[in-house]
Design a protein that fits this description.
CMD-like; 182 residues; AhpD-like; mainly alpha; Carboxymuconolactone decarboxylase-like domain-containing protein
Length: 182
């Protein structure tokens, strides 16, 4: 398996530095996964562009974290599960909802369950969700536009989930308490 450096802003390739600076502004630190992705300026810049769009969607930040955590679990990316566990809890998602998702189960909250089910089905079925599944998402109070926003979140998380798995990115200290094994 290839070994990827986990870059800082100072050590990153020149064309990755601005993206890492933007992520540092967003998180207060450069997460290790971003440092690993920075080995490819194309990928880190693509990630930051999609990241900015995802986090300016019409979904609440807690709902975005539900989708990102669901994606991390569905894609079995241990780094992203720990990272998004921390962020979901910071955004006020209850521990019971987080624990359910980490156990690959829908949360009890109806809106969170709808997000979990759509995200899981999009990944597992590669976009081939049924009309009934889409109707259930809409019945939970979401819009047709938000179906497409969930697709954008899945796209963004696919970048980090796949890259984090391939790079075997070590957990940052603040996320170690949320370590996960699928």
């Amino acid at each position: 398996m290839p070994n990827y450096s986990v870059h800082t802003i100072a050590s990153a390739p020149e064309n990755s530095k601005t993206a890492l600076e933007q992520l540092q502004q967003a998180f207060g630190v450069v997460p290790n996964i971003a440092g690993a992705i920075a080995n490819s300026p194309k990928l880190i810049n693509a990630l930051v562009g999609v990241f900015q769009q995802v986090h300016s969607s019409s979904l609440a930040e807690a709902e975005i974290q539900i989708v990102l955590l669901t994606d991390a679990v569905t894609n079995s990316c241990a780094y992203a599960v720990a990272f998004h566990t921390a962020l979901a809890l910071q955004q006020g998602v209850g521990a019971e909802a987080v624990d359910a998702i980490r156990a690959r189960q829908a949360p009890a909250d109806g809106r969170y369950a709808a997000l979990f089910n759509l995200a899981t089905n999009l990944i597992e079925r590669r976009g081939h969700v049924s009309e009934e599944e889409l109707d259930a998402f809409l019945a939970a109070g979401f819009t047709k536009e938000q179906v497409l926003e969930v697709i954008a979140i899945v796209a963004a998380s696919t970048i980090t989930n796949y890259a984090g798995t391939i790079a075997n990115t070590p957990l940052d200290d603040p996320f170690r308490q949320y370590a996960w094994r699928g």
